[in-house]
Design goal:
heterodimer; A: 331 residues; alpha/beta; seven-stranded mixed beta sheet; B: 366 residues; six-stranded parallel beta sheet; 10% strand; binds thiamine diphosphate; pyruvate dehydrogenase (acetyl-transferring) activity (chain B)
């Protein structure tokens, strides 16, 4: 067991997978000479050379598509998109091609590839660079979408994604790269499609993923000091979605709040809320509430950005409101 | 006539190293000293403005991504001088100097960087997204290549209405590899639109060199697939840039067709304020320093007896004051009110528009 950053966990996993399997190669902008915009691929060009660590031109549609084609012949490309915002340039290749090829040709060829990309927000990057649009990919049958929130999960899930035979959108987060956590020394391969109860509690279920899973854990810790027992569910996989784990938790607590970094209307939380009402209707003591980004193109100015983003404070407020709706507000 | 076969100005071809400067750039003889001094002042203003920007960034007064025009001053001033006031400009995110050059007051540019409501985009855009209707700066864009189709569309609107404005569309060298570049040049050429695409070749997109990213590294030649004339110019020479750009802008206006201009320039610092540019060799860094266009123009004007010690001091002082004034203005300007958060989601108000803060319930009466 060692304590490392989320960044280091990703890098170590890429490196060990490249050693394990000659078919694994990396493609992306600035991943080689520049060593990655967020330094996830630091040192890998030096270690593996240009054949396996390929700096691409700024041509997302071209190199994502090329990775799909290479995967059709059995390579296992891991593509880095600098941020999820730029995936929009490649969205046709991802949705119309990567997600379709296995089914459209009757299962004759699979597309074993990974697209790694960070979401984010909260760094004054403005309207086009602060979006959390993982929903677009989570909506698509044929894609798998993973969203780890800790270094250990990042390692285990990236390993699983690389070894999986389907296209995986692997969501990272700018706000998580420097966070630290324990990672086991032995190779753990996650099971794709499983959520996790990361903290047990009895009063309310709090659901998040990616950066929000980390925020919800902090909120739960703080509320514990006030005597409120929060159960935290980390979705980890947005597609497939582990509805069982969510609904079982809500059956125990009787109410739920969902925290998400994307926009509310039609967002990831909408699907969770719909699943809860269908699976745990008789157990619900209060409406399911969502805390999400204000529905605007994100402004640059700090006070506006701060107001628009969900935070530990807004989540706490909504938890209090939900518990008071249940009639058992504590603290 | 622009020569499409032979590059003008700096003769750098496929190799990374720059070959000897200036074959035969314009001489100072035909120029008015007053005009030359004005170019010099504008270049120095951009230099000092960007240095101040970097400083304010490290003091956390500016946030987000922040890309500077340091080393590109001659290119910026030459290009902006070539435009008429009525001409439109689209740029990428490296646009502070262009905003100033297009006639926007440095105060409003700095205030935008500080995210204040007095900024060009009211604090909503930041460093990468400046827009000003009056100055006809139709936006700095943060998505590589995003500005190209828009510039083509603006030129379509001009052509559709029979106007005589020209659209200039600035971009970096790395941008010539994205699909939007090729789609845009093709459409502009097919439809005979008055747009001048300008590639600022600072020989790197982030850390990737032109040779490593472009199969045809002589970027001005890329227009030939669309039968579009391309010209390469020495971006270190403000007069050469002005002449080449003015020639293409006026031809676009007169002949109603698009052109491609490549300005060979240098990025003196990292890709953005936070990039230490460690991937550059000492030799490359030295080269960028040795090619400082402000210092070169200053030396040239001094040698010609146009820039006296006294004038140099005077210009330096007034530029210093102007930049300090811009920073003071920004510092003392108000932040946008949180109550304005939902003001710009839609231009046409409609019922049921969401103006919900993160902790607000979906149904208010809940
Ligand atoms: C579609 C897209 N992909 C990637 C990026 C990230 N990015 C921002 S600037 C840049 C390099 C652009 O280089 P160049 O066009 O040469 O312009 P320069 O920065 O040198 O002015 C990259 C890759 C982006 N903004 N948009």
């Amino acid at each position: 067991m060692s304590v490392i950053t989320y960044r280091q966990a990703l890098r170590d996993t890429l490196r060990s997978e490249m050693h394990r399997d000659e078919n694994v190669l990396l493609l992306g902008e600035e991943i080689g000479v520049f060593e990655g915009s967020y330094k996830i691929t630091e040192g890998l060009l030096k270690e593996f050379g240009e054949r396996r660590v390929r700096d691409t031109p700024i041509a997302e549609e071209g190199f994502v598509g090329a990775a799909i084609g290479a995967a059709m012949l059995g390579l296992r490309p891991v593509v880095e998109l600098m941020t999820i915002n730029f995936s929009l340039i490649a969205i046709d290749q991802i949705i119309n091609h990567a997600a379709k090829i296995y089914g459209m040709f009757g299962g004759q060829t699979s597309v074993p590839m990974v697209i790694r990309t960070p979401g984010g927000g909260g760094q004054q990057l403005g309207a086009t660079h602060s979006q959390n649009i993982e929903l677009f990919y989570s909506f698509i049958p044929g894609l798998k979408v993973l969203a780890p929130s800790t270094p250990a999960e990042a390692a285990a899930m990236l390993r699983a994604a690389i070894r999986d035979d389907d296209p995986v959108l692997f969501l990272e987060n700018l706000g998580l790269y420097n966070t630290k956590g324990e990672v086991p020394d032995e190779e753990v391969v996650a099971e794709i499609g499983r959520a996790a109860v990361t903290r047990e509690g009895t009063d309310i279920t709090l659901i998040g993923y990616s950066r929000m899973a980390a925020v919800t854990t902090r909120v739960a810790e703080r509320l514990a000091e006030q005597g409120i027992s929060v159960e935290v569910v980390d979705l980890r996989s947005l597609r497939p979605l582990d509805r069982e784990t969510i609904v079982e938790s809500v059956k125990r607590t009787g109410c739920a709040v969902i925290a998400e970094d994307d926009w509310l209307t039609y967002g990831i939380g909408a699907e969770i809320a719909a699943s809860i009402q269908e699976g745990a209707f008789d157990y619900l003591d209060a409406p399911v509430r969502r805390v999400a980004m204000a529905e605007v193109p994100m402004p640059y100015a700090k006070p506006l950005e701060t107001a628009a983003m969900p935070s530990a404070e807004s989540i706490t407020t909504v938890i209090h409101e939900t518990l008071s709706a249940v009639g058992r507000r504590v603290g | 006539m622009a020569d499409t076969a032979k590059p003008r100005g700096t003769g750098r071809t496929g190799t990374r190293r720059r070959t000897a400067r200036k074959e035969a750039g314009p001489t100072l003889n035909d120029e008015q000293p007053k005009v030359l001094l004005d170019y010099y002042r504008q270049m120095l203003l951009i230099r000092r403005f960007e240095e101040r920007t970097a400083q304010a960034y490290t003091q956390a007064r500016i946030g987000g991504y922040c890309h500077l025009n340091l080393g590109e001053e001659a290119t910026v001033v030459g290009l902006m001088t070539a435009l008429q006031e009525r001409d439109y400009l689209f740029t990428n995110y490296r646009e502070h100097g262009y905003a100033i050059g297009k006639g926007i007051h440095p105060r409003r540019v700095m205030a935008e960087l500080y995210g204040r409501s007095t900024g060009v985009s009211k604090g909503w855009g930041g460093s990468m997204h400046m827009f000003d209707t009056e100055a006809r700066l139709l936006g700095g864009y943060g998505i590589v290549g995003g500005q190209l189709p828009l510039a083509v569309g603006a030129a379509l609107a001009v052509s559709y209405r029979g106007g005589d404005e020209v659209v200039m569309c600035q971009m970096g060298d790395g941008t010539t590899n994205i699909g939007a570049f090729h789609e845009s040049l093709n459409i502009a050429a097919l439809w005979n639109l008055p747009v001048v695409f300008v590639v600022i070749n600072n020989y790197t997109g982030m850390g990737t060199t032109v040779e490593k990213s472009s199969a045809e590294p002589e970027l001005y030649k890329r227009g030939s697939s669309y039968r579009m004339e391309g010209v390469r110019v020495d971006g270190q020479d403000v007069l050469a840039v002005r002449d080449a750009a003015a020639d293409l802008v006026e031809r676009a206006r007169a002949e109603q067709k698009p052109f491609l201009l490549e300005a060979m320039s240098h990025r003196m610092k990292g890709h953005s304020v936070v990039d230490p540019a460690k991937y550059r060799s000492a030799e490359q860094a030295e080269e960028a320093k040795a090619n400082d266009p402000v210092a070169a123009f200053e030396a040239r004007l001094t040698e010609a007896g146009i820039l006296t010690d006294e004038l140099r001091q005077e210009i330096a002082d007034s530029v210093k004051d102007e930049v300090a004034d811009a920073a003071d203005f920004a510092e003392n300007s108000p932040h946008p009110e949180v109550s304005t958060l939902f003001d710009y989601t839609y231009a046409t108000p409609v019922p049921n528009e969401s103006s919900r803060m993160p902790a607000d319930p979906v149904f208010a009466e809940q």
